[in-house]
TrEMBL record:
Natural source organism: Paenibacillus donghaensis
Lineage: Bacteria, Bacillati, Bacillota, Bacilli, Bacillales
Protein name as catalogued: Amygdalase
Pfam families from the UniProt entry: Glyco_hydro_1 (PF00232)
Keywords from the named record: Glycosidase, Hydrolase
GO cellular component: cytosol
Gene3D superfamilies in UniProt: Glycosidases
Amino acid sequence: MKTVREGFPQDFLWGGATSAIQIEGGYDQDGKGLGSGDMVTAGSRNSRRRVTRTLEEGVYYPSHEAIDFYHRYKEDIALFAEMGFKIFRLSISWSRIFPTGEETEPNEEGLKFYDNVIGELRKYGIEPLVTLSHYELPFALSEKYNGWGSRKLIDLFVKYSEVLFNRYKDSVKYWITFNELNCLLKPYGTYIAGGMLSEDSDLFFNLEADSKQERLQAMHYQLVASAKTVISGRKINPDFHIGCMITYHTPYPYTCNPDDVMLAQEEDLINNLLCSDVQIRGEYSGQALRYFHDHKITLDVTEEDEALLKQGCVDYYTFSYYTPFTLSKDPSMETTSGNMSRGIKNPYLKTSDWGWQIDAQGLRWALNNIYHRYQIPMMIVENGLGAVDKIEADGSIQDDYRIEYFREHIKAMKESIKDGVDLIGYTPWGCIDLVSVSTGEMAKRYGMIYVDKHDDGSGTLERRRKKSFGWYKQVIESNGEDLT
């Protein structure tokens, strides 16, 4: 009989996470094409970002320079190594490899950049965790095919993935196909996750548009592309570990009213689990089919698609966790926002500077719920606190609030491991300050490394260690035991 595991496994993968569009910059260098994220203007908590069809003079696009990882990756990776990272989650920019998505041959200069980044990680013994698509695709594919609204993108994506699999078959072990694939279940996913252009709006988050049919069709094409990519990757290197990535919101019923309880269950089964059911079990669940029926969604699904989904199941489950959501059938309840979603304000929880509610116990609930459904290895590949950081007179950044956030979430992870969850890694989001996808801000800082870059694009780009830097280093050195 197995015994209860105390503490983290000795080979636990501690690290951090980023995405290309939020850190790289170099948007027009060395043959890179325009990506979907390169067409998005800055915004704020009070003003939405815009998507422009051409680059407009005098308009600030945060991704064009971001934090200039393109030129500073050696400095940044050295800092990650100083913290003791075992793994680093990065994404590869599709438009840096295939500038329009349809070239016959990949852009060699783009590949050389990732050769250098992966080589630098390997120099320090850091495992690369590579996301193939993290809210980015060549903008030319948005213009020509309406992004993932077209089945055409499936084979273009597989071709791109195969180039990377072949190039890095001996240097990258861990892969993720699509970031937060279930984002397409929400209206804001139309452009951010699907690269689909709305005819009547240039809003980045077009919350007013009811495009369920379009978004869920795009989601299906991504699910098929993911499955084909998994199948192809295993042929190139059977030792690859290829995973899914889901944005997970722990669903709480606001009351014990059965209507609220059923609503919370529906939220979990559809918005949290629909995509992972397909990627892990190989088919749409009964609840998903009921959802399509009730919303009059008719998907273009072929027999070949169904066979591919069965064959191309992923090896492990990764997810982002920032906040839970409380749900009620009562339309008069006060709502609050979170990572790509909204819910009822929970009176028992604290709230971040950006209105996201904080609940470490919700992470333990999520880990147990997910693992005991699928029973495959799990990684938390995004988790963190966006906050306003202040530089003190002595130059230090005393981000004790971030340390407290991480401390409580790591405690919840330890409890879930005692519960029997096979948790293999943790990569907090924005281990270095980066551009916020939702608002385009730099002021919403997640990092343990401060970057001197501001919302208007000004700044020296100087890096400096926050208090959380040294704290996380001690956490990694002690394998999660020293949380003081």
